[in-house]
Amino acid sequence: MGFIVNIDYIEFSASDFSKVKAFYGSVFGWEFEDWGEEYLAFSNAGIEGGFTKSEKPPIRGGALVVLLTDDIEIAEKSVIDGGGEVTEHHEFPGGKRFHFVDPVGNELAVWMKMPIEG
Q1: Do residues 111 and 72 make contact, with C-beta atoms less than 8 angstroms apart?
Q2: What angle do CA 74, 80, 85 make, to 5 degrees?
Q3: Among residues 27, 28, 38, 105, which one has the fewest Cβ atoms lying within 10 Å of its Cβ?
Q4: d(CA 45, CA 74)
Q5: Distance (Å, rounded) from C-alpha 99 to C-alpha 86?
Q6: What is the pLDDT of residue 100?
Q7: Which pLDDT score is estimated for 1?
Q8: Strand ranges (DSSP E) for the chain?
Q9: Where are the domains positioned within the chain?
Q10: What is the pLDDT along the chain (118 residues), one digit of tens a residue?
Q11: In 3D, which of 64, 68, 100, 109 has the Cα closest to residue 81?
């Protein structure tokens, strides 16, 4: 190909930055930096990203950001306790995951690797 291209940054939309900070900060330990009233950057998430201020509802059913955990039960409880809504559960060879909607409407998933038996 001649050059390298990697996913480097992820952006979400959010109508309420205080809800975003409270949810992702308490549930996953993400850290935030305000860039004016229209942009909120996050770090300590495995990849850096941000939230753009928007009153439009987030797009669901498109690309899905999947977070990796080492304890899916604790992660799911934390999502629920933090105000997220778990919407789906999946088990498959090598792992399991759940999908959730955050307090501002973004859909993400959390998965955990499981040993393949056999």
Answers
A1: yes
A2: 130
A3: 38
A4: 17
A5: 6
A6: 97
A7: 64
A8: 9-14, 31-34, 39-43, 48-53, 65-68, 85-92, 95-101, 107-113
A9: 9-113
A10: 688 888 899 999 999 999 999 999 999 999 999 999 999 999 999 999 999 999 988 878 888 999 999 999 999 999 999 999 999 999 999 999 999 999 999 999 999 999 877 6
A11: 100
* DSSP element (H, E) containing 72: helix 72-81
Where residue 104 falls (left for φ over 0; alpha for ψ -120 to 50; beta otherwise) is alpha
Q: Which residue has the tokens 């009153």?
A: 55
Cα 108–chain centre separation: 5
Tell me the residue type at 20: V
Q: Which amino acid is at 70?
A: D
For residue 103, the model assigns a pLDDT of 96
N- to C-terminal Cα separation, the chain: 38
Helix (H, G, I), strand (E, B) or coil at 39: strand
